[in-house]
């Protein structure tokens, strides 16, 4: 465990250096960017060590893994983000531990989240996941609402009891016009965020960038980066 602690501390320090360097390069303050550590596939013991090392935001993408982990770590001062594609039959469970859901991408999900948030007496922060590789009205292959659908979905979240509209999230597309062009993709997300904030000024979170492209996200103006591999190591198998 001590070895693992040293490993995580070392990795965190390197990621911290990268974020700081990216902020300096972009002329931004370090406090403008929040690190979210994506702990998916890794055990609750790692989450506990990360918390001891000062991490305050963690993210998970599968309810089956996340629910027991969050329960084991419920004594820790952590903010839990849900970042995976979410089926409506998992919403009740997710609302039990997630402070924010970053993968809101359709009206049925908004309805289900609202119902369960009210039932649980919780307020759930919502980020709309934007599919930059989708057509103007379709949804993306890995989830996400197309840019043309943001406004309508945002209004729906803003009016839904138990939900709070916090901003936008994206994953850099692997296909389409933005493939391999993370900086351009993240700048597009920032433009969409600017549009969103005209009607919803408080929805100012912009979640973009992972282990491989956090610098591009910080340069484009992201407020939150989601880093897994660079902190915890390469995940075995799919995740
Ligand atoms: C796994 C995951 C991440 C982290 O990816 P890494 O490349 O491991 O840093 C970020 N965002 C989402 C939505 C993820 O599923």
Short description:
By secondary structure, this protein is an alpha/beta fold. It contains nine helices and eight strands.
- The CATH class: Alpha Beta
Low-confidence stretches: none
Q: In which order are the strands of the major sheet placed?
A: 7-6-5-4-3-2-1-8
Shape, per Cα inertia axes: globular
Terminal residue distance: 23 Å
Which molecules other than protein and nucleic acid are bound?
pyridoxal-5'-phosphate
- Average the pLDDT over all residues and give the rounded result: 96
- Radius of gyration of CA atoms, rounded to a whole number: 17 Å
The biggest beta sheet reads: 8 strands, parallel
- How many DSSP-defined strands? 8
In sequence order, what are the helices and strands, one letter per element? HEHEHEHEHEHEHEHEH
> What is the CATH T-level topology?
TIM Barrel
Strand content: 15-25%
Family: Belongs to the pyridoxal phosphate-binding protein YggS/PROSC family.
GO molecular function: pyridoxal phosphate binding
InterPro entries: Ala_racemase_N, PLP-binding_barrel, PyrdxlP_homeostasis
Organism: Streptomyces luteolifulvus
Structure in words:
By secondary structure, the chain is of the alpha/beta class. The chain has helices at 2-26, 44-52, 63-72, 91-95, 107-120, 150-159, 182-199, 214-220, 229-232; strands at residues 34-38, 57-60, 79-82, 100-104, 124-130, 163-170, 205-207, 224-227. Strands 7-6-5-4-3-2-1-8 form an eight-stranded parallel beta sheet. Helix 1 (2-26) runs parallel beside helix 8 (214-220) and helix 7 (182-199) packs across helix 8 (214-220). It starts with a helix and ends in a 7-residue tail after the last helix. The mean pLDDT is 96. It binds pyridoxal-5'-phosphate (PLP). The site of pyridoxal-5'-phosphate has 13 residues, from strand 8 and helix 9. Residues 38, 40, 61, 83, 171, 210-212, 226-230 line the site of pyridoxal-5'-phosphate. GO terms for molecular function: pyridoxal phosphate binding. This is Pyridoxal phosphate homeostasis protein.
